Amino acid sequence: MRSVFITLAAAGILALSSLAQAGTLQDVRKNGFLKCGTHIENPGFSALDANGQRIGFDVDFCRAVAAAINVPEVKYTPLTSKERLPALQSGEIDLLSRTTTYTMSRDANMGLDFTNITLYDGQGLMVRKSSGITSARQLDGATVCLQTGSTTELNVADYFRRNGMNYTPVVFDKQPDVRAAYDAGRCDVHTTDVSGLAAQRSLMKNPEEHVILPELISKEPLGPVVRHGDNQWGDIVRWTVWLTMAAEEYGVTAENADKLFAESPDPEIQRMLGKTGTLWQDLGLDAGAPVRVLKLVGNYGQIFGRNLGPGTPVNLPRGYNEQWTKGGLIYAPPFR
Asked: How confident is the model over 24-28, as a mean pLDDT?
């Protein structure tokens, strides 16, 4: 009998824990703004423009979620790698959109849920062209500048150990400090995700003097994170991101969303844009949510292109982040 009581008590505690974490949508609407955690400074992902407005790939997904739930403002909290997960766990932010790698331990043991993978990336290594180094296998004995509190540290340790090489880490809390130390010559190598290396290189004194080596030393699937236990909020973030991906697949853009809502005969587009069915209402949103999102931020290709693609300082090719119809990994489930 005592064991039954203990089991019921434990179940009750878990239920109360879930209830305590539920209701993010209601809290955000009551506040009138979305609290979104993002980078301090990472061009292409999250940085301030000339007018002091925060822009970037990760920022656009914050804006998309705010548009979906129809709140007028996003309040951004710039966070270091060490600060980002505790800020979400504590409720300081409602959503984390900050190049955060989807890992088993983060997803299963920290009271957090990853939603979508918005960028398929991998960790790289950057060196000066003048070093003559063309391969990561030539880095035995190198000093490596990196940021603490991320998967970066373990990936570097694993790579050097796996290949029988030694290195000396030079560790900082903030990515701008990593960049500054490397740029000043305090270390031989700068390491983070390849997209981050491209972004940080754009801020260096002479960007053309640095090269990213060809090896990827890890897989880095990046995406937004929410607190565990609030399924409605997780679904809203998830399907808002998938909306942008599906919109690109079906040719829906910021410019033609209204027109296709009114005129498209395609049943998938009609459901996706909220013209038919109750998919968005079932999430607790209004039928105008999808068109509102797409008119604000555009489809996935538009978000990628203006923040990370050719012609931007980051200048990343689509690669794995191309649509599945073109050999990439960007794939949204059906809207039905």
From this structure: 98
Task: Please name each of the domains of the chain with its CATH number.
Answer: 21-120+222-326 (3.40.190.10), 123-218 (3.40.190.10)
**Nearest Cα to 253, choosing from 296, 286, 223, 287?**
296
The 3-state DSSP class for residue 210 equals strand
Q: Which two tokens stand for residue 104?
A: 């088993």
- Measured over the CA atoms of residue 91, residue 42, residue 307 and residue 155, the dihedral's sign is negative
In the numeric block, which tokens belong to residue 64? Answer: 């998309």
Nearest by Cα to 192 from 114, 106, 98? 98
The answer to whether the beta carbons of residues 28 and 94 sit under 8 Å apart is: yes
The helix (run of H) or strand (run of E) holding residue 76 is: strand 73-78
pLDDT attached to residue 11: 42
Q: Is 105 exposed, middle or buried (0-12, 13-18, 19+ CB in 10 A)?
A: exposed
**What is d(CA 284, CA 25) in angstroms, rounded to the nearest whole number?**
9
- Residue percentage of the chain with pLDDT more than 70: 93
Choose among 9, 3, 5, 28: nearest CA to 232: 28
| Residue 150: closest CA among 39, 244, 52 | 39
Q: Check whether 17 has a pLDDT greater than 90.
A: no
CA distance 232 to 227: 11
Taking CB atoms within 8 Å and a gap of at least 24, the contacts of 168-172 are 168/142, 168/143, 168/144, 169/143, 169/144, 170/143, 170/144, 170/145, 170/146, 171/146, 171/147, 172/145, 172/146, 172/147, 172/148
Task: Give the Cα separation of 89 and 86 in Å (integer).
Answer: 5
Q: Which residue's structure tokens are 């700068």? A: 190
